[in-house]
Structure formats: structure tokens, C-alpha cells
Amino acid sequence: MSANDQQQLQNLVFSAELNVENENLEQLGPIIKTIYDTDRQEAFLDQLAMFVRKKEGEIERMCNSNYQEFIQSVDQLLKVRQGTVNLKNKIIDLNYDVQKSGKKVASKKKELIQTRRIQKNIDEAVETLQLCLHVLDMANRVNHLVEERKYYSALRTLEELQTVHLRKAIQYEFAKHLQESIPVMQHDVKNAVTKEMKEWLFKVRQVSGEVGKIAMEQMKLRQERWKLKVAKNPDLRSVPVSSPIEMVMNEENEFNIVNNDQVHIDFKPLYQCLHIYEELGKRNEFKSNYEEDRRSQANLVLSQSFTLREGNEKGFEAFLQDIVGFFVVEYVIVHSTQNFRSQTEVDNLWDSVIAKVVKIITESLDECHDPNLFLQIKFSLFTFIQTLEDYGYNVHAFTDLILTVFQRYSDMLKQRFLEDFLQTLLYDDYMPMPISSPAEYEAVVDACWFKEDHRISQGYPRTLPFSQAYPSCCLDIKKFVDQYYTFAEGDSRQFSTVDDIAKQTLDNLLIEHVNGVLTSKLESQNMSQIVQIIINLEYFHDACGELEKLLKSKRSSHRGGQIKLKAAEEFRETSKKAEKRIFELVNSKIDDFLELADYDWVPNSVQAHPSFFLHDMANYLTAVISSTLYNLPMSIKIFIYFNALSHLASSLCNLILSPSVKKINANGVANLEVDVTFLEHFARKLEDPNIADAFLELRQIVTLLQSDNVEEYLDPSTRNRKYSLLKPTDVINLFDK
């Protein structure tokens, strides 16, 4: 028995001594339980017996020393013994109860342990099932997120599934299979977002035309606003739309081309697809695919077919709108993303497209022959170019196309002018134009820059020098210039070249068509018609100066220098040809009169009157000058007189010197002198007395033949003074006759 048990037992006995009535069973229970737990019953009994013997010895000693006390002690001892017996019985009963209860507790404990083991297994199974169900639920949620087009959430779920949850269940076969399926599921997400992106591209392709239409309409509004500003301030005429000055002065609010009441493009599918590819580390693949798709769409736009042959420009405008819409979308993408669509890539795509666009437009313009339709096409084309330029695209490649458009349009205007001019000439009577009222006169003055002329009678009706063809032609020329510069309106950057084309085309029009047609008319035998052509040419020559002023007023404000039309000189040269043609006709008529001349060079008498054919010829010249040639400038009429009389004088000289004339007597010379005197008198009555000089050679011949001293011809001083026009060979010939 341990010292502790002994001490407890001693304490129990000591306590019993103090209070015999108190059995101290509360303390006895734990001691007995400890004894039974440690299986030391025998030791306990031995100690208890030893304790009893010890106490008996003490009692005996006490009895010996004090009997009374001994008796009391015996009584107490008996009580203790009785208590001990009772205690023993209780201990036995308690032990039985404890043994019985212990067996039940042990059985329950075994059941509890088994139950807890089962519960633990169940808990582990439940936890595992919950983990597996969560994994499967997340895998299933990925599919739902893809169906709901929440692709980024699907990727994040896959990442969480792969990096967190699958690792906890990787020992299971389904988890391994699911782990292997992660790349496939990521690929499915990529395919789904790519499919949505393709659908978005298709929708963008469908609305690109509408976007382009809106963008071009906005540019037209800016053009109209700028026209009003230019009208108020002509110094802005050379400033184009989209220039820094125009952009500063443009007070209108910004208009969202891709998000408005008419069209709405949601770029979320693009941004989402870009984000997904970035998360998958395949950004370059997406860039490459997008570039290929957009290039294919650009080729699809370029493959559109349209024709201008039937005067329908809708297909042409739709083509331009599709191009603008396509590159407006590209502009928005470049400026709304980072490190995805660079400006260089878009510019490269634009460069590859622009050459085809220019070719398609150029070929389509070959089918257009209507100037009015061409004008509409030009405005659409200019709006197209300015819109793209406003979005930062390089439009220099359109320069040659623009110049081609101007040249084509000017050629069409020139062709229309030629048709109208030929029609005008067809109905022109080549007679001075009659005017019956002041209103008609004002209309003519306004049409052809006409100024008052002394040749025009006052009052109404009155007659203007030129024929109806001249004001009609001037009106058509003005219309040509106005239409051309209306066509050129809006492209101030090309003004210098446009001005040059206008001048060159107008020059060609005047030279090749107006002057060319009038030149072809000079073959006519109708002198009145040729005279009218000369008068018209005179006014056309003067009109060139007015046209030069008109072109200068239309040209770009920053250009200086003079404008000189070559047509003015051509008209002058043609006028000289016309004058020469009149000379030919008049001289031909004079030749007809000369054929009537029947000179008798050896008559028997001297005639008192000049030859009859000279009278007829003088009357003819007078009539022609006063009627047919009346409206010609005086200088031309004098020149015609001089040329005609010179031709007559030359013909008469040739007649005298002709080999057919064998002999001339004094009477023949006298008759010739009468004719020469008549002609000189006729010439002196004309506007310019110097016209009579045409007969100087004839006069010298007559003077020499009538001279009493013909040898004076041999004197150089006399010959130079009196016979300067006579050739020695002719003089010898005359003396021989």
C-alpha cells in the first residue's frame, strides 16, 4: 500500500476518533475506488489489519494507563469495528455495483468508439462527396457561364478549379480526367468567345455602310457650315475643311458616329475577346486572326459591283459609305484599345485598299457620261476623301484621281459645249443680231460683256454687230466656267492644278472648237458670212480678256500673276485668215471684171470716158464696202480697199506687160491714162487717201510712156524720183511695144 493510501487511511481513522458517529463515507469512497482501480485489496486489508493491531496496542496501553479511558476506547473500538464491518459490506456492495457499471461503461465505450469511427468515415465521405460535388458543380458552372457569355468568369472558374479544388481531389480518377480536360474547356471558352467575335464582325460589316453614311453626312454638314463662314470671310476660301483653322472655328459639339440614334455598335465582344485571348496568353493569335478577318471583309467591300452607266449613283455612294464605315470602325478600335491594333497596321491595310479603291472608282467613272451625275459623284467623292482625312487617313493617293475627275468633267463640259455651239452655228444666220427691246439688249450685254459701239444705232429695234452665235457662245462659256468651278468647290488644296486645268480646257475649247469651227467656215464663198465671222472673231478676241478676268476672280485667292489665254492670239490669226479670204473673194470678183476688159492697145482715137468694167468694178467695191463690209472695222475696210485696188493695179500692169500685147500706140496709152486717172480719183474719195498709192506703178508706166524725154529714165536720180517702182526689164518690154 502506498504511503498516500496509508496517510488517507490514517486520516480516516483519526477522523473516526474525533467523531464516532460520522462514518466519513464521502472520503472512504474515493480511497476504495483507488484500491480497486489499482487492484490492491489484499494490501489494503493487510494495512487495515496492521492498523487495527496498532490501534489495539495503543488501546491496551491506554487501558493500562487509564482503565476508564480504556473502557471508553473499547466501546469506541467496538463501534469502529462495527463501522468497519459495515464499511466492508458497503465496499463489497459498492465494488459489485462498480464492477457492474464498469462493464456497461466499457461496453458503451466500445460502442461509442465504433460509432465515432463510423461517424468519422461518414464525415470524411460526406466531405469528399461535397468536394467532388463542388468540383463537378464548378465544372458545370463553366458551361453555364459560357452559355451566359460570361467568358472571363468561366476562365477564372477554370483557373480556381485547376489551382485549388482539383488538387484536393486529384487522388480520384474523375479529378484526373477533369484535370486533363481543363485545356479543352479553355479551348471551348476561346471558341465560344471567338464565335461571338465573328458574329460581332458580321454585324459590324452589316452596319458599316450606315456608319459611313452618317460620317459623310456629318462631313457634309461641316462643309455647309464652312461655306457660310467662307462666304462671310473670302480669305478663308483656300482653307479646306478638316484643317486646323476649320477645326478651331467649328463650334459644333462632337457627334459619336458609332453610338447615336441611328446606329449603335457595342465593342464589348471585341474587348471581351481580346481580354480572353490575353488571359490565355494568345494575344498575338487573336491579333493575327482579327487582321485576317478584317482584310477579308475589306476585300468583300471591294468586291461590290455597281455601275454608273444608267445614271444611278446609289451603288457608287454605297461603296464609298462602306469604305468610310469600315475605316471609321478601325479608327475607333485603334483609339480605344492598347497594344492591339496599331495605327501602322491600319495604315498598311488602308494602303492596300486605297489602290484598289482608286482603280474601281476610275473604272466606274469611265461609264459615266452625264455631267450632272458626274457633279453628284464628285461631291460624294470629295466628301468621302475629306471624311477619311478627318479620321487621320492619308489621302494623297487620291490626288491623281481628283485631277482625273476634273479633267474628265472638263472634257464632258467641253463636249457638251461643242454640241451646243455646233447647234448654235447650225441655226446662226451669220447676220448682225437684231434687238427688239431693252430687256433683250440687257440680256445680251450681260451674256457677252458687250460694250456700246459707235456702229450701233440707238433706239429699238436696233442691230448689234455680231451674230446670234456670239452671245450664245459666251453664255455657254460662262456656264462652262461656273459649272467647272462649282465642280471644283470644296477642294482648295487642288486649286492651283484646278485653275490650270480650267485655263487649259477653256483655251482648248476656244481654240479647237470655237476657233476651229469658225476657221472651217472660211472656205465659204459667201462674203457676208465671212465678214460676220471676222466681226464675231473680233468680239471673241475681246471676250478673251474678260474671260481672263473671270478666271482670275475664280482662282485661288493666294495665287498671283496674270492669266493669258492663247485663244486670243488664235482668234487674231484666224481673223487675219478671214481677211485674207475676203481679199481672195474680192480679188476673184475683180478678176471677173478684168475678164470683161477689152483693151485695144492701138486704137485710132482716144476715149473720153474710162472703161465700162472699171465703172462696174468701182460700183461693186462701193456696194460691198457700204453694205457687206459695213460693220467691219475701218482699218480692215481700208486694207480691203487697198488690197483690192492693188490687185487691180497689178493685174492691169500684167495686162500691159503680157506677151499677148505686141504693140501699144499713143492713143492706147492715153486711154490707159484715162482709166488710171479714174481709179486714182475713186481711191482718193475713200476714207484713206493713201489708198491711191496702189496705182503708183501704173501711173509711173503711163507717165513714162507719155514722156517726151524717155531717156530721163536712164538718169538714176530721175529714175528714183519718178520711176522708182518700174523694173528695167519691164521698161525695156514697154519700149519694145
Structure overview:
The protein folds into 4 domains: 3-138; 192-391, no CATH class; 408-581, Exocyst complex subunit Sec15 C-terminal domain, N-terminal subdomain (Tetracycline Repressor, domain 2, Orthogonal Bundle), CATH 1.10.357; 596-736, Methane Monooxygenase Hydroxylase, Chain G, domain 1. Residues 16-22 have low confidence and may be disordered. It has 737 residues and is mainly alpha-helical. It has 24 helices and 2 strands. It has helices spanning 3-18, 25-38, 41-65, 67-147, 151-168, 173-232, 244-249, 268-279, 283-302, 314-336, 343-365, 371-390, 399-426, 438-448, 469-488, 495-520, 527-554, 567-595, 612-628, 634-657, 666-684, 696-706, 716-722, 728-736; strands at 433-435, 462-464. The radius of gyration is 66 Å and the shape is rod-shaped.
Q: Give the CA-based shape.
A: rod-shaped
Q: What oligomeric assembly is this protein in?
A: single chain
The domain count comes to 4
Question: Helix and strand string, N-terminal first?
Answer: HHHHHHHHHHHHHEHEHHHHHHHHHH
Mean pLDDT over the residues: 81
Count every helix, treating DSSP H or I runs of 4 or more residues as helices: 24
Give the gist of this structure:
The chain is built from 24 helices and two strands. The protein has helices at residues 3-18, 25-38, 41-65, 67-147, 151-168, 173-232, 244-249, 268-279, 283-302, 314-336, 343-365, 371-390, 399-426, 438-448, 469-488, 495-520, 527-554, 567-595, 612-628, 634-657, 666-684, 696-706, 716-722, 728-736; strands at 433-435, 462-464. The chain has a two-stranded antiparallel ribbon with strand order 1-2.
